[in-house]
Sequence to fold (384 residues):
Amino acid sequence: MHFDTTSVPRSLYIHWPFCPYKCHFCNFVALAAHDQYMADYHNALVKEIETFFSRQNSKLTIDTVYLGGGTPSTYPLPLLLDTFGTLKNAVTFSSDYEMSIEVNPGTVSDEQLVAWREMGINRISIGVQSLNEMVLKRLNRHQSTKDVGEVLEKAHRLFSALSIDLILGLPGVSAEQWKETLAQVVQWPIAHISIYFLMVHEQTPLYFGVKSNKITLPPDDEVVDLYYWSIDYLAEHQFVQYEISNFARPGFESRHNKAYWDRVPFKGFGLGACSFDGNRRFQNEKNLMKYINNIGDGKDVIDFSEQLSREQIWLETLMLGLRQKNGMVYEELINFLHDEEKERFKAQVALLCDRSLMKCENGRLQLLPRALAVENEVVEKLSM
Fold:
C-alpha cells in the first residue's frame, strides 16, 4: 500500500533519530551512540525526499515543516543544509510558512542558530521537561538549568517563536517545585508551552523502575490537580490553552500540530516517520540499517500501513477534535452516523452535558475544563 500521490500534503515531518543519550522515559524512534551512521542516514533521508517529490504531478506548496527526533539539534550543519536545499528544490513554501526544529538544551551553538534562521527555520521547540536537575539525571537526561538559560538567551536574539516542552508527573518533582517551575517559565521570552503527562511506556527503563518499585510516581489525583492549576495559572500569564497539552500567546499556536489534529494529509520522512494521505496511515521502517539499505536498493521503506475503517475514521475525528479547545462541528459528527447510531450518540452527549463534562453551543461540541484530563474516557462513552 502506497501513499496516494493525488493527495496534497501541505505539512511535512522530517525525522532525525540520533541522540547523545536516551532518556529513561523515551519510547520514540531514537538512537544513542549511533553517530557513525549519521552521514549514511542523511543520504538515505535525502533520497527518500527526492523520490517522493519526483512522483508528484506538480510542485507542492508547503505550509509547515517539522524537524523532530531524536535530537535534531545534533544534525551536522552541512548535512542539514543539504536536506533543506533538497526540500527547497522540490517544493514551494507558502508566504506564511511555519518551519520548526526540536532542540535539547546543551546541544545548540550560536553558529547553528544563525544558520537555521538563514535556511528558513522560524520556530524553535526546546525540550526543557523539568528544571530539577537531579530528577532529570536519574532519568538519564543530561542537561542543566544553565543549559536551558543559555539556549533561551541565544535563540531569543534570532527567533520570536520559541516553544518549550514540560513533563508533568515526573517522579521526585513535588507540587511546589512544579509551581515554581511554571513561575519561572512564564517570565521567559517564549510564546508557546506544551505540558505532557508523563507516560510510562512498556520496555523503557522507567517502566522497569516503576514495576520493581524502585521508582515511585506521584499520585494521579495530585497530577490531575496540578494540571488544572497549570491551566489557570498560564491563562493568568497570557498563555491561552488551545489544545489539551498546548498553551500559546495569541498568534503563536503550532500550525503543524493542528494539521495532525484536523486530520489533513501530511508526509513524514525518515526512520519510523508516520504519514497520512487522508484515508490511510503509514509508518516507515524503524530499523536503522534496514531503512538505509532499502533506500539504497530502491525499495519501499514503509513498514506498516492501514486503510482506515469507518469506525476508525469516526474515532480519530472525535478524539482529535475534542482535544482542541474549540472542539468540533456537531453536525459533521452527526451526519457521519447511521440513524440508530445518531440516537445513541445524542443521548450520550446529553448525559455528558448534564454531568458538566461537555457543552454544545453555536453548533460546536466541546469538552468542559473538568473533562480535559479524562478525554479518553469521554471519547469511549461517545464512540460507536
Q: What stands out?
A: The chain has a mean pLDDT of 95. The radius of gyration is 21 Å. DSSP finds 14 helices and 17 strands in the chain. The first strand starts at residue 11 and ends at 16.
